[in-house]
Amino acid sequence: MTETGSFGGLSVHLNEPLSHFTFTQTGGPADLLALPTSVGEVQQLLAEARAQALPVTVIGNASNLIVKDGGIRGLVILLTKMTGVTCDGTQLIAEAGARLIDVTEVAYQAGLGGLAFAAGIPGSIGGAVFMNAGAYGGEICDVLASAEVLTRDGQLKTYSNEDMQFAYRHSLVQDTGDIVLRATFALTRQPRPQIRAAMDHFNSLRASKQPLDYPSCGSVFKRPAGHFVGPMIQQSGLQGHIIGGAQISEKHAGFIVNLGGATASDYLAMIHYVQEHVAAKFGVALHPEVRIIGSDVAKG
User: Fold this and answer.
1) pLDDT grade, residue 2 (50/70/90)?
2) pLDDT value of residue 289
3) Residue 78 burial by CB count (10 A; 0-12/13-18/19+): exposed, middle or buried?
4) Are 113 and 188 within 8 A, CB to CB?
5) How many other CB atoms are found less than 10 A from the CB of residue 107?
């Protein structure tokens, strides 16, 4: 970690490279990086940022994220220390920084089914709610009962599933900028062996199809209606293509992996390269599923 300072009475890291946290192992520095451990600390950080008129960026597990090489101005709040998970009957309540992988294990131990589809997704609860994450026929919107959020002006709110306006890889908080603090899931009682079998099945599928042995940001593009991204990239002759340290995975063409030394600019160049070639061959516009944030230019 870089040197630390004080921000609203809380410790923050100064000019911390975000490549230390992203799954692509790329990304420039955050001016200020805070790792709060409670809702109160998030409120405190947000209040101080408002007082100083600083922009605020919130990051979860940084698994489906590209931070540009210029880094992020202002305050970055990383929620990975807010990891509490509890069960209350058939409800499971998880804080925003809890990893889906860990949360699905808690659900299994409690004999609660419905989250097995997420067993191998590397993201956090907050990020999963933010983007309505899904895999193998399941989505967060299928099981979310409510989400507790903090608005940018400091108000605590609770949104129901309906309030969240879920759609494919979309939720209300993408539009409002509200910070997801915790989520409550409505699950069902299931025999533990049945839950474990489903989790093992999905994890086996993931291991057989996805390039888990290299850093990546997961699935890069949203699935266009009536098409599959990987086959289109393959049929465009792009699989294995390399730009800088980034490569279209030879195992799954829908992934871009870091072979070593890749930059965020390499990733962005590859995304644009794929978009151009697939549009030329199929007339299909590919839109990133991965969240792309930050500045193209380093802090002066």
Assistant:
1) confident
2) 93
3) buried
4) yes
5) 26
In a domain, 269, yes or no: yes
Judge if 96 and 195 occupy the same domain. yes
Where is the domain boundary, 52, 78, 104? Answer: 78
Q: Any idea which residues carry the catalytic annotation? A: 169, 219, 289
Copy the structure tokens of residue 55: 């922009």
Do 70 and 140 fall within a single domain? Answer: no
Render pLDDT for 168-190 as a digit per residue (tens, 0 to 9): 999 999 999 999 999 999 999 99
d(CA 186, CA 249): 36
User: What is the domain count for the chain?
Assistant: 3
**Which residue type is seen at 56?**
V
DSSP output for 270-288: HHHHHHHHHHHHH-----B
User: CA torsion, points 40, 45, 48, 52, in degrees to nearest 10?
Assistant: -160
pTM: 0.94
Residue at 160 is within a domain:
yes
- For residue range 71-119, list pLDDT tens digits in order: 999 999 999 999 999 999 999 999 999 999 999 999 999 999 999 999 9
Q: Domain span at residue 48?
A: 4-78
